[in-house]
Amino acid sequence: MGHERRIRVKTLVMILAMVVCANAGDLMLKRGMSQIGAVQITPSGLEHALLATVSSPTIWLGILFLTGFMLSYMTVLSWADYSYVMPAGAFGYATVTLLAVIFLHESVSPRRWIGVLLICIGVLLVSQTKPRTTEVVAQREEVAA
Amino acid sequence: MIRVVLLLVVLILGTTGGEISVTHGMKAVGEPEKLRPRQLIAFLRRALANGWFWAGVPLMALSFYALLVLLSWEPISFVVPASALSYVVGTLGAKYALHEDVSPARWLGVLLVCAGVALVATG
């Protein structure tokens, strides 16, 4: 029972890291692209956009967060079920809505609040199930060979 | 219309196929013994040497480009709810390709999340 609980806590912490990194990354990309302005779909417009994005610290910070998201996603998938982690990751839609209300003072429609509520109930249901249902098949030898 | 449906199929199968492939690879890599920098670096090196991981990456890239093209054709309030179907497709993939045990509670949770994402995106 203690072992089971440890896996659950470890998995939920990693999913939280995933959600925080994904939200922060998206927020940074949005902020960076707003600073750059709307991209013109012409050869010179695209060239300008490419140069502006690679020289923007905000965009790089966003990429760093999204790399953190990918690494935490890979790590948690090394022990937890895909069908456990994937729906739980949707919790990000709920947190980003709360962040938008708190920090950006955006107004949120009742329809959207219902969606957030459904996501929270869904994630809660999934989180009650066993994080791992498949056998452990470490194939370290394969890498060593 | 047909091109939108086709690209949606590419988007959904690309995302779920890529993630299932990466999951399969990561299960073979095995979890890091400890979540410390030394073990995490060794873990990352094992992951980067795994074929299933690299099979998943182009599929995810493909789905990302499909998303960008779809967003240039259709409003985001159509694209995101439609792509929420990938929660259902991904769960089917987890059950049949990865042989995970998807309990009724987990299915119900996935369906609620799917409906919730659709509502949030169109709200």
Q: What would a concise description of this structure say?
A:
The complex is a heterodimer of chains A (145) and B (123). With 145 residues, chain A is an all-alpha fold.
Description:
Chain A is an all-alpha fold and 145 residues long. Chain A contains 7 helices and no strands. Chain A has one domain. Chain A is globular and about 60 Å long. Chain B is mainly α. The longest helix of chain B is centred in the N-terminal third of the chain and has 28 residues, at 2-29. Chain B is globular. Chains A and B meet through helix 3, helix 4, helix 6 and helix 7 of A and helix 1, helix 2, helix 5 and helix 6 of B.
Topology:
The complex is a heterodimer of chains A (145) and B (123).
Chain A: H1 2-36, H2 43-54, H3 57-77, H4 82-89, H5 91-103, H6 110-127, H7 140-144
Helix pairs in contact in A: 1-3, 1-5, 4-6, 5-6
Chain B: H1 2-29, H2 37-48, H3 51-73, H4 76-83, H5 85-96, H6 104-122
Helix pairs in contact in B: 1-3, 1-5, 4-6, 5-6
Q: Strand fraction band of chain A?
A: under 5%
Number of helices of chain A: 7
Give the strand tally of chain B: 0
Helix-residue proportion of chain A: over 70%
Uncertain runs of chain A are 139-145
What is the N-to-C order of secondary-structure elements of chain A (H for helix, E for strand)? HHHHHHH
Order of helices and strands of chain B: HHHHHH
User: Of all protein chain pairs, which has the greatest interface, and how many residues does each chain bring to it?
Assistant: A-B, 46 and 50 residues
Overall 3D form of chain A: globular
The whole-number mean of residue pLDDT values of chain B reads 92
Global geometry of chain B: globular
Q: If you compute it from the alpha carbons, what radius of gyration of chain A comes out, rounded to the nearest whole angstrom?
A: 19 Å
Sheet of most strands of chain B: none
Q: Report the sheet-strand fraction of chain B.
A: under 5%
Structure summary, number of beta strands of chain A: 0
